[in-house]
Design a protein that fits this description.
alpha/beta; Rossmann fold; 2 domains; six-stranded parallel sheet; 14 helices; globular; RfaF; transferase; LPS_LOS_Heptosyltrfase
């Protein structure tokens, strides 16, 4: 029988199956901190894909990362079963499954982990020892969605804030990449899909204004698939823009954002990185719902205009992209002025 609400016994070895997107993984960190607070003496290992494994390295709620790479060692059914056998040898007491996929429940079940906590999604109820109906958490911000899962089973504590950590060495190396003491990070991409992306020519206008009005040197970041976007912004901008699109690791991207004085970003994983480090941040929302995924930070402002088809949550806009067209350069600059008024520039030291 799957139990839906009861305190768990004393746990000494805990596995967390993390989610697969960087932004979602950051929104699980308050739940990770709650597990740590409830089980301060337990060893906590996080199973994660390569990008999320990088993201959560050095996190205070995690003792170690177990890499789950479906493109290499864990590829195919044979690789998956070998991985489950390795987890079985770990003799975990409990698994908290933040990933809602059927595969996550099978992984914990095949690893003979006696306590398997997760939402009853994707037809996996019979593989969970402690399951929760997703309807209980419907409509919550994602941070609260994961927190409710662990709190329902007695994992309470922590400060409910999203957190990340960089080492002093990572912060120093990031400083070597940017030859300016004060700079603004512009993230014009969004791995989820083009529907989330504002327009390169408007980002270029913002880059010019950020330098001219605030004295902040614009620095572009983004993934390998977003280099063309970065090149378009550089061509359209009047001021010199440092384009690091496609050149940074996850860890280096984190440290660059942590050192920045301002961030302008689409709704994306890097947006949540900025929020975790308390960077003054302007987030542009179109097809997605800020009630569910807004940056959790007192230093952040969301820019969004209500249109009849939003939030549609589509990866590619099937019509005229009116939700993003409605956001003007002046809207973004007004929000930037507001967050810079309300926050002090972050110190260029390690937030770890």
């Amino acid at each position: 029988m799957t139990r839906s609400s009861e305190p768990l016994p004393d746990l000494r070895r805990i596995m967390i199956r993390s989610v697969n997107w960087i932004g979602d993984a950051i929104m699980t960190t308050p739940a990770m901190a709650a597990i740590r607070a409830a089980c301060p003496d337990a060893e906590i290992a996080v199973v994660a894909n390569p990008p999320v494994a990088e993201l959560l390295a050095h996190h205070p709620a995690c003792d170690r990362i177990i890499l789950f790479d479906k493109k290499r060692e864990c590829k195919g059914i044979g690789g998956f079963l070998r991985f489950c056998a390795e987890l079985r040898d770990e003799r975990f007491d409990a698994a908290f499954l933040f990933q809602n996929a059927f595969e996550a429940a099978i992984m914990a079940f095949a690893a003979s982990i006696p306590i398997r906590v997760g939402y009853r999604t994707d037809g996996r109820r019979m593989f969970l020892s402690h399951g929760l109906s997703p309807s209980i958490s419907r409509g919550l911000h994602h941070t609260l969605y994961y927190l409710r899962l662990v709190e329902r089973f007695g994992m309470t504590g922590g400060d409910r804030r999203i957190t990340l950590a960089c080492t002093p060495e990572e912060m120093d190396r990031a400083g070597e990449l940017v030859p300016h003491r004060r700079f603004a990070v512009i993230n014009a991409g969004a791995a989820y899909g083009s529907a989330k992306r504002w327009f390169p020519e408007r980002f270029a206008a913002v880059a010019d204004a950020v330098f001219e009005e605030f004295g902040l040197h614009p620095v572009l970041i983004g993934g390998l698939g977003e280099t063309q976007i970065g090149a378009e912004i550089v061509r359209a901008a009047r001021t010199r823009v440092l384009d690091l699109t496609g050149t940074t690791t996850v860890r280096r991207m984190m440290a660059l954002i942590a050192r920045s004085a301002l961030m302008i970003t689409n709704d994306s994983g890097p947006m949540h990185v900025g929020a975790a480090f308390g960077v003054p941040l302007v987030a542009l929302f179109g097809p997605t719902d800020p009630e569910a995924t807004a940056p959790v930070s007192a230093a952040a402002l969301v820019v969004r205009h209500s249109v009849e088809c939003s939030p549609c949550r589509r990866r590619v806009c099937p019509t005229d992209h009116r939700c993003m067209h409605s956001i003007t350069v002046d809207d973004v600059l007004e929000a930037a002025r507001a967050v810079l008024r309300e926050t002090k520039p972050p110190s260029a030291s390690s937030p770890a």
